[in-house]
Amino acid sequence: MSGEEAPTLQQQPEQEKKPDEPPPAAAAEAPQESASSPAAEEKPLSWRALVLTGHGGYEKIKLQVKTQTRPQLQAGEVLVRLKACGLNFAELLGKQGLYELLPAPPVILGMEGSGVIEAVGEGVTDRKVGDRVITMSRSGMWQEVVVVSANLTFPMPEQMSFEEGAAIPINYITAYMMLFEMANVRPGKSVLIHMAAGGVGIAVTQLCQTVPDVTVFGTASAAKHETIAQGGVTHPIDYRTKDYMEEIRKISPKGVDIVLDPLGGSDTQKGFSLLRPLGTLVVFGAANCVTGQKKNLLAMAKTWYNQLSLTALKLMQSNKAVCGFHLGYITDGELISRTMFKLLELYDQGKIKPRIDSCYHFEQVTDAMKRMHERQNIGKVILLPEAKEVEAKEVEAKKEEAKEEEAKEEEAAESKSNPEPVENVEKTEAAIDEKEEEATEEVKAED
């Protein structure tokens, strides 16, 4: 799947001031103090955010600078300055208007991030200013500072980087719940994961390795096979040049025990047919719908037409299970927290470790999304809220140039408004004439 070409988004942040907007963020200069402090309330704050201004191509995502008063934290809330944010396929769908949980534009994108707590609200006793945490939400994470419930923050292990922290929540919670809560993976089982080089694919592969003797089949382009094989995929399959069903049948004639399907359409039917008796198919995406920058109605219709359709009787006769998974619709906060803490425990034990494919500053969001859209990434694509250093220097240089130009204009204006007095001009001319006469006399004397 390849995306349409689009100009790279390397824009200067737009200035936007919305005092009445619910304040989701704060600026870097904000003092690290309680939100109830009067000084904290009065100081205006500015922060950068990536805003989806409408559905369509990459140009619909704008880097904006918002300014307003410091937010008054409610009980149980914390203010987090984000250092890294995760990019997920859901943002590609949301950009095209295909992600139903995303509020209507304008809306700040992003579902996960990691950073440092800068303020805490009343009643927060297990988090403090300065704590490094991971946090998540259904949207609003692609900005420098966010206000979230303390219950949705998770302390980061000391050795974990901010980039790794931002790579864990969505991909690893999805992988863990599908494997252990739904499919009940056990020793000796076999698993097929599509898009094995993506964030979820790598998470699934690593988690399968925590269970003895699990065989992993993974589809990916040939250029990624060496990497995913080193990561734990037992049988990499090039879906672009080979029929993955035939390749799996050659290795395992009876099929596989678990199929994790992020593609949808005809691939869901293929996945069901590959299941062994008592096997489980988990559908968790519809990537086949996304074929370009903008919504493709033909691709959507094709995916819908080819989707798996079963009766309860057929399902019973086949002795197979079909499940659907969507993390956005899980409202059990305790389940999410329990899973997240389990994942952090596995990280501490060295059993899982996010693979970071690449990092892009907010100014480079188009490049980041294109990389994922065109399936070039191996692992997680990360967005960095902090301004790109080179561009920050350029902005400062332009500011200095503007100041110099302004100073020159003021100087010119002053010289025009204050001409030299006539008397002084006459005195100057007389002095020049006198010097010329003296010079003439000296020349005559020499002669």
Which characteristics define this entry?
36% helix; alpha/beta; single chain; disordered N terminus; globular; disordered C terminus; 447 residues; 14 helices; 6-stranded parallel sheet; 7-stranded mixed sheet
Topology (elements, then pairings):
Layout: E1 14-17, H1 38-42, E2 44-52, E3 61-69, E4 77-86, H2 89-95, E5 107-108, E6 112-120, E7 132-136, E8 145-149, E9 153-155, H3 162-167, H4 169-182, E10 190-193, H5 199-208, E11 215-219, H6 225-231, E12 235-237, H7 244-251, E13 256-261, H8 266-274, E14 275-283, H9 297-305, H10 312-318, E15 321-324, H11 333-348, E16 356-361, H12 365-373, E17 380-384, H13 389-417, H14 422-446
Parallel strand pairs: 1-3, 10-11, 10-13, 11-12, 13-14, 14-15, 16-17
Antiparallel strand pairs: 2-3, 2-5, 4-6, 4-8, 4-17, 6-7, 7-9
Helix pairs in contact: 4-5, 4-11
The oligomerization state is single chain
Portion in strands:
15-25%
* Structural class computed from helices and strand pairing: alpha/beta
| Helix coverage percent | 25-40%
Task: Give the end-to-end Cα distance, rounded to a whole number of Å.
Answer: 96 Å
Q: Unreliable segments (pLDDT under 50, ≥5 consecutive)?
A: 1-10, 17-41, 439-447
Task: Determine the number of helices (DSSP H or I, runs of at least 4 residues).
Answer: 14
Q: Write down how many β-strands occur, each being a DSSP E stretch of 2 or more residues.
A: 17
- What is the global morphology? globular
For the report, how would you describe the main beta sheet?
A: 7 strands, mixed
- Quote the average pLDDT: 84
Cα radius of gyration in angstroms? 31 Å
